[in-house]
Design brief:
The protein has 227 residues and is α/β, with parallel strands linked by helices. 50% of the residues lie in helices and 16% in strands. The protein folds into two domains: 17-43 and 106-195, Rossmann fold, CATH 3.40.50; 46-105, Guanylate Kinase phosphate binding domain (2-Layer Sandwich), CATH 3.30.63. It contains ten helices and eight strands. The protein is globular and about 65 Å long.
Length: 227
């Protein structure tokens, strides 16, 4: 294989990390699921949790079910990319699973809240952050109501949380309005694939290119001048 082919392989050898956030009811999980169906080389990573398995859940597939002590140990030893506590249960993304998937060339898509996304941004500056908005405030409330999953008190609480989340949307790299799922998925795909050629994503390729082209040229010139 030529030197040129070796460094051009750098373009595709390392997957991207894409974090998706948005209030409950925006349909972000639907967008992610559809994108993963259409792009099988992309993946998500199994989270770890301290809560008990629910009926039908499989360890290693739905979650990694760990003890509270083990969860805390993973945090202390830097094994968690991000984590949070909900109703006294810990939830987190193991760092190794994400790194292994990216090294294998897979784009990793994570569905995280704003706090989790900002933690990822700190640890992985090359991550792409995407925020999904509802088309309108009334539509968000309508979706939450139609889902049949929430009572009125819970809907009001989720709407309050949505207001706080949307106030942080300007911290993200991209914003998608999910009025139509198919259009939102297409826009998401354009973001992921377009960002593949950004400066941060191309860093490995660029370093190899400089080594293979510019440094070799300078070395050859120096050898000629020294004679």
């Amino acid at each position: 294989m030529s030197a040129q082919n070796k460094y051009f392989d750098k373009i595709a050898e390392y997957g991207q990390l894409v974090v998706v956030s948005g209030p409950a009811g925006t349909g972000k999980q639907t967008v992610i699921s559809q994108y993963l169906k259409e792009h099988p080389n992309a993946c998500t990573c199994v989270s770890a949790t301290t809560r008990e398995p629910r009926e039908g859940e499989v360890d290693g597939k739905d979650y990694y079910f760990v003890s509270y002590i083990e969860f805390e140990r993973m945090i202390r030893t830097g094994q968690m990319l991000e984590y949070s506590y909900i109703n006294k249960n810990g939830y987190g993304t193991p760092k190794k699973a994400v790194e292994d998937a990216r090294k294998a060339g897979h784009n990793v898509i994570l569905d995280l809240d704003v706090v989790g996304a900002m933690r990822v941004r700190t640890l992985c500056p090359d991550a792409t952050l995407v925020f999904i908005l509802p088309p309108s405030w009334d539509e968000l409330e309508n979706r939450l109501t139609k889902s049949g999953r929430y009572d009125e008190e819970t809907i009001n609480r989720l709407m309050d949380m949505a207001e706080e989340d949307i106030a942080c949307a300007n911290l993200y790299d991209y914003i998608i309005i999910n009025e139509d799922v198919s259009k939102a998925v297409n826009r998401f795909a354009q973001i992921v694939h377009g960002h593949r050629y950004s400066r941060t994503s191309m860093e490995s390729f660029l370093n190899s290119y400089i080594e293979g082209e510019i440094n070799q040229r300078n070395k050859a010139v120096s050898e000629v001048l020294s004679k």
